[in-house]
Design goal:
The complex is a heterodimer of chains A (348) and B (358).
Chain A (H helix, E strand, L loop, with lengths): L4 E13 L7 E8 L2 E3 L3 E5 L6 H8 L7 E6 L2 E2 L5 H5 L2 E4 L11 H7 L13 H13 L15 H14 L4 E5 L7 H18 L2 E6 L2 H7 L2 E5 L5 E4 L1 H6 L2 H8 L3 E3 L4 E3 L5 E8 L1 H13 L2 E4 L6 E8 L4 E8 L2 E5 L2 H16 L2
Parallel strand pairs in A: 4-9, 4-10, 7-8, 8-9, 14-15, 14-16
Antiparallel strand pairs in A: 1-2, 1-3, 1-5, 5-6, 10-11, 12-13, 16-17, 17-18
Chain B lengths: L12 H25 L7 H9 L6 H36 L11 H19 L2 H7 L1 H28 L3 H24 L3 H11 L11 H17 L1 H7 L3 H6 L4 H23 L5 H13 L4 H23 L10 H20 L2 H4 L1
Helix pairs in contact in B: 1-3, 1-14, 3-9, 3-12, 3-13, 3-14, 4-6, 4-7, 4-8, 4-12, 5-6, 6-7, 6-12, 9-12, 13-14, 13-15, 14-15
The chains are: A alpha/beta (348), B mainly alpha (358).
Protein name (chain A): Iron complex transport system ATP-binding protein
Membrane topology (chain A): Peripheral membrane protein
GO molecular function, one term (chain A): ATP hydrolysis activity
């Protein structure tokens, strides 16, 4: 088990030492005991300002810890030189690239720095490794392109390829999916998962997107605003309420039953839904957005039955309310009808 | 340069370069000879070649002119152009700022202060006339003063750089130190006599003709040392293109690299300013021109390219400064800026993107 560990920490405290004479320091998080295993995708999740970036930079040796120990493949980080660290951990940071006039191939080849000589010339093995990294990241068609002319998603893949070329047991990525659209986000996560599982690398990525973290992570590290980290399988953390608690502190309202964040306080309803599952799922979202409480039980005035209408290949909604029944063929109509019913109820 | 990355059909940056380098080298050689053939005394081209090859031209006056005046001047142009261009490149990469140049660390200003102290203070003790009479010794004194001035500022910047980790902070401190140094010079000028100020002003125009054959080797040693350090720094410089954090995460000892970058820049910029006075524009513009021409930021290619391009540009500017066909010589610094600025504007507009030029 121990040799499977790419990065681990004992009683680690992270934060900033102030430059002033009074050695005062700002602790962001402490008592961190984590273990990043090979072949595993870990999402580091926490509200903004909880110290995700600081933790990633500290684990990568880019930022000095305030206290405690970090071990890279079992060796203490302070016993390792910058070069030795760079052979164990590679990073994809949020630092923006501002250069052009460099080809994708050359940029990925920079990832071989820890292995090349003083002049940085690539050996045949280095070239092979760079070619493999480019292939694995799925950017072979971009090889000759100037990095300046890449889209955000492509650039992110290039930076991932560069960290692959670095041939480390762990890759740490700080917000790799920020600024990416949905297809690129999915592609990036797929790539990272494939890498972790096929090449046995440990992948740690920070994000503040709940949905993504819940879907992508083998293990979740939850960093709360008090600087405490809880690790576990995402579903366990949801079921035991840790997840909810962390986000409640940050002012989110996480709904355990849907796995998403509630945007609106329910003020109307309750409404009971039954029928086709897909139809129910989307109707529920529309109702919650409009401020209805959707009930698990049949109690309440309003019941909506959702049916798939075979003839017109669409859905139909039948509202039953105080003995009356109304049929509708779109969610919009349904919502209009519901607010009319609400007004009618309030009026007399 | 072209031996790496070139197999299995990859059109690497390295593969297209040998031709460019051949072209640049020949252009430098041609301009070098052209530069030697121009001057107030016209020497027929065959005789010029004879003098350069073996030296039995039969006309000792021509021989003296070529060997003692024109050759040092052209060689100085080559070294000054290369050195200033590379030091500018180092600063642009270190600070990741397309507007950085050799003067941003205040080293050029330090040289100016040194010269100002000697010229303006010496004037009050002896006379400028005395320094002029000492001629060679006098220029030696000025070179020494400029070297001491830039060395003092260099040491100051090095000390600060050990304390300050952030590059942008260092850049601003460098600029401020430069400003303070220039302010000192202004104060000194204010209390000096007009003749003294005139001498100083002439020095600030820059000159490639002030280096004698005997001093040339000193300039050579400084340029080769500074340029050699820069070449050795290619790998860290490539890493720094991605910023300090990425460089470190790729195993590059950033603090040490930064120290050597500053040392190399100081040697190059300080040395050239000491011998030739401040020559503007070359340091900022040549790296951009070279990037545009070679289409790469890979320093293993960019540094040699910048060396050649710098030499080429300053030789060309010197030819223009000598105004062929007339007896007037224009100040070199003015010519470099007059010729160079439109070129840079053209390059940047053509690329339609300032970042692309960086």
């Amino acid at each position: 088990m121990e040799e499977q560990s790419a990065i681990s920490s004992r009683d680690l405290a992270i934060g900033f030492r102030s430059a002033g004479r009074r050695r005062a320091s700002l602790t962001v998080a402490d008592h961190i005991d984590i273990n990043l295993r090979r072949g595993e995708v870990v999402c580091l999740l926490g509200p903004n300002g909880s110290g995700k970036s600081t933790l990633i930079r500290t684990l990568a040796g880019l930022h000095a810890p305030l206290d405690g120990n970090i071990y890279l493949s079992g060796e203490h980080i302070t016993d390792l030189s910058v070069k030795e660290i760079s052979r164990r951990v590679s990073t994809v940071l949020t630092d923006r690239l501002t250069i052009g006039n460099i080809s994708v191939y050359d940029l990925v080849a920079f990832g071989r720095s820890p292995y090349t000589g003083w002049f940085g010339s690539l050996s045949p093995e280095d070239e092979e490794r760079v070619a493999w990294a480019i292939e694995s990241a799925g950017i072979a068609h971009l090889r000759e392109r100037d990095v300046l002319h890449l889209s955000d998603g492509e650039r992110q893949k290039v930076m991932i390829a560069r960290s692959l070329a670095q041939d480390t047991s762990a890759i740490l990525l700080d917000e790799p999916t920020a600024h990416l659209d949905l297809p690129n986000r999915v592609a990036t996560i797929r790539l990272l998962r494939a890498l972790a599982h096929e090449t046995g690398k440990a992948v740690l990525l920070s994000t503040h997107e709940l949905d993504l973290a819940l879907k992508a992570a083998d293990t979740l590290w939850l960093l709360n605003q008090k600087g405490r980290i809880t690790a576990g399988t995402p579903e366990d953390l949801v079921l035991d309420g840790t997840f909810e608690a962390v986000f409640e502190q940050a002012g989110f309202d996480f709904d355990r039953s849907t796995g998403s964040v509630r945007l609106h306080e329910p003020s109307r309803g309750p409404v009971f839904l039954s029928g086709d599952p897909t139809g129910t799922f989307w109707t529920r979202r529309a109702l919650e957005r409009s401020g209805y409480r959707v009930n698990e039980s049949e109690k309440g005035d309003i019941r909506i039955e959702i049916a798939v209408n075979q003839r017109i290949c669409g859905f139909s909604w039948i509202i039953q309310c105080r003995g009356d029944a109304y049929s509708h063929s779109s969610v919009r109509e349904l919502l209009v009808e519901l607010s009319r019913l609400d007004e009618a109820k309030d009026a007399p | 340069m072209g031996d790496q990355l070139s197999n299995n059909g990859i059109r690497s940056q390295g593969k297209v370069h040998p031709l460019y380098f051949l072209g640049l080298t020949s252009a430098v050689a041609i301009l070098f000879v052209l530069n030697l053939s121009l001057g107030s005394v016209s020497i027929p081209f065959p005789e010029l070649l004879d003098i350069l090859m073996g030296g039995e031209a039969g006309n000792t006056a021509w021989e003296k002119i070529v060997i003692n005046i024109r050759l040092p001047r052209a060689a100085t142009a080559v070294m000054a152009g290369s050195a200033l261009a590379v030091s500018g490149l180092l600063m642009q990469t270190l600070f990741r700022n397309p507007l950085a140049g050799p003067s941003v660390l205040g080293i050029t200003a330090g040289a100016s202060l040194g010269v100002a102290v000697v010229m303006l203070a010496a004037g009050s003790i002896t006379t400028v006339f005395a320094i002029r009479q000492l001629s060679v010794l006098g220029s030696g004194v000025i070179i020494l003063a400029a070297s001491v001035g830039s060395a003092v500022v260099l040491l100051l910047i090095l000390l600060i750089s050990l304390k300050v980790r952030d590059n942008i902070t260092l850049l601003i401190i460098g600029l401020m130190v430069g400003n303070m140094t220039i302010a000192l010079v202004s104060i000194w000028q204010y209390f000096s006599r007009p003749e003294q100020i005139q001498d100083y002003l002439i020095w600030t125009f820059g000159s490639l003709g002030g280096v004698s054959l005997g001093q040339l080797w000193v300039l050579g040693v400084v340029t080769v040392a500074g340029g050699g350090i820069a070449m050795v720094l290619s790998k860290p410089l490539n890493g720094l293109l991605l910023g300090k954090n990425y460089a470190r995460s790729m195993g590059i000892p950033v603090s040490r690299a930064r120290l050597w970058i500053i040392i190399s820049t100081s040697l190059l910029a300080g040395g050239i300013t000491a011998f030739c006075g401040p020559i503007g524009f070359v340091g900022i513009a040549v790296p951009h021109l070279t990037r545009s021409l070679l289409g790469t930021n890979e320093h293993r290619v960019l540094i040699p390219g910048t060396l050649l391009m710098g030499a080429l540009l300053l030789l060309a500017c010197d030819i223009i400064a000598q105004m062929p066909g007339s007896t007037i010589t224009l100040p070199i610094s003015a010519v470099t800026s007059m010729i160079g600025s439109p070129v840079v504007i053209w390059v940047i507009i053509r690329r339609k993107n300032l970042k692309a030029a960086f």
